[in-house]
Amino acid sequence: MVSVAILGAAGGIGQPLSLLLKMNPHVTRLNLYDLVNVPGVAADISHINTNSTVSSHLDKQNLGAALTGVDIVIIPAGVPRKPGMTRDDLFNINAGIVRTLAEAIADYCPTAIVGVISNPVNSTVPIAAEVLKARGVYNPKRLFGVTSLDVVRASRFVRDIRPTVDASALRIPVVGGHSGTTIVPLLSLAEPRFGGDEVVQAKAGAGSATLSMAYAAARFTDSVIRAINGEDVVEPAFVSLDADPHGAENIRALGAGSLEYFAVPVQLGKEGVQRIVPVPSVTPFERKAIGVASAELQKNISKGVSFTQKAKI
Ligand SMILES: NC(=O)c1ccc[n+]([C@@H]2O[C@H](COP(=O)([O-])OP(=O)(O)OC[C@H]3O[C@@H](n4cnc5c(N)ncnc54)[C@H](O)[C@@H]3O)[C@@H](O)[C@H]2O)c1
Ligand SMILES: O=C(O)C[C@H](O)C(=O)O
After folding, report:
1. CATH code for 2-146?
2. CATH topology of domain 147-309
3. Closest ligand 1 atom to the C-alpha of 77?
4. pTM of this prediction?
5. Is a pLDDT exceeding 90 seen at residue 50?
6. How many H helices and E strands in the chain?
7. How far apart are CA 84 and CA 147, in angstroms?
8. What's the DSSP call for residue 111?
């Protein structure tokens, strides 16, 4: 019995993600929330003959009902990039959206596990954390920036150069954050590829990754559900290193230093983060990349934190 709310369910990610979660046999309730078009999406999805119940929640006055009683909240609400933009260019719009949604989570489902997809993830996760802290319900084990797409891409890109490998079986750790040089796949010989930029360019103004992201978010959500149901699952995510200070020692030693948040492999449990999985030693090349990522991440995190402080939640 697992109830999931998707906030931004009528969007490019939200729609295929809703479809994939409707097909997940462990999901019993799917609450779809958006500011537009969600009644149609929910009606459409609800006709799929799996056993879960789908409900539609349009507009802010119905946000509380969308969140009440849910175990997991996934947030793909917000604007996507156009060519020439960085993820940080989305900050001005998406920061306020994530802040509002986090306030409602604090009020209606403060113990839910929350996965933030909205960019810039490096800043929107600290924003959500600050809102939850201000309302006295923050638990670093239960808040995640969804970085599964970076790991999905890394394994697929390796298959492009090694066609004999099974891309779905490859497990390549990706650490740091979720933007430009903060995404550090631990593949010391790899040529850098900027997967998000490739999709933004190819879509030529029509948005950023939606289908591969929906797949990655469905995988993330399924991992959380399997952990709630007692399975041993490791999934990458951008989390607070306070969620497991002991496990984080190894990550800090690799170059994360005193950063509060970092993308790491996470062993999930019933309560969210059970353990940060140590990353095996890195090469000098990778260590340098982690140093570059950490400097940028510090700026992104501080920007998110000061946004919430200025707003006096
Ligand atoms: N973490 C990742 O790996 C990753 C990958 C791809 C995209 N993204 C990000 O995900 C976000 C969504 O991308 P998309 O392509 O689905 O965009 P989209 O514009 O297609 O959909 C966004 C949806 O959010 C809704 N929305 C806007 N404000 C809202 C609010 N206050 N409450 C509820 N819903 C609201 C919109 O109505 C729309 O339906 C973007 O910020 C994008 O950059 C992240
Ligand atoms: O690149 C983007 O803007 C969307 C997302 O962060 C991605 O990695 O595809």
Report:
1. 3.40.50.720
2. L-2-Hydroxyisocaproate Dehydrogenase; Chain A, domain 2 (3.90.110)
3. 24
4. 0.95
5. yes
6. 10, 11
7. 22
8. T
